[in-house]
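tokens incoming
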């Protein structure tokens, strides 16, 4: 199983804001996130996911498609699937940069068809998820 990484969604107070931010970075079905250093274990991460942390909880993920170096800067691009997948909320401390997350420790995807959650307002889903009720 591929390795995953976690990253704080800095400045995002809600999943809706993260969705807007990701949508603004999508080009040809690929979202780009930049980082100063390429992960040492980058080959293990391709095919894994980047899990986003909002308010000290893992809330969503995107599949990692690859890495590329930026030409004019000493930074790296992380190429992500444009689709943001909600996951079962899991507490996580905030940190700088990214951290590795083993596949067995990663939260399960959130089933929106489960108990009519798709019709529920996202703010309410977020509150219930933060309380670990869903």
């Amino acid at each position: 199983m591929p390795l995953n990484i976690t990253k704080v969604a800095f400045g995002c107070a809600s999943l809706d804001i993260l969705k807007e931010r990701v949508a603004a970075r999508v080009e040809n079905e690929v979202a780009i996130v930049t980082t100063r250093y390429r992960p040492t274990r980058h080959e293990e991460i391709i095919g894994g996911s980047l899990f986003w942390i909002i308010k000290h909880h893992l809330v969503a993920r995107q599949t990692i498609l690859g890495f590329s170096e930026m030409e004019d800067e000493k930074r790296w691009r992380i190429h992500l699937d444009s689709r943001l997948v909600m996951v079962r909320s899991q507490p996580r401390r905030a940190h700088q940069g990214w951290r590795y997350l083993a596949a067995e420790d990663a939260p399960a995807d959130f089933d929106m068809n489960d108990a009519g959650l798709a019709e529920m307002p996202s703010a309410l889903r977020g509150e219930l998820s933060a309380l670990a009720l869903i």
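note: Residues 4-130 form one domain.
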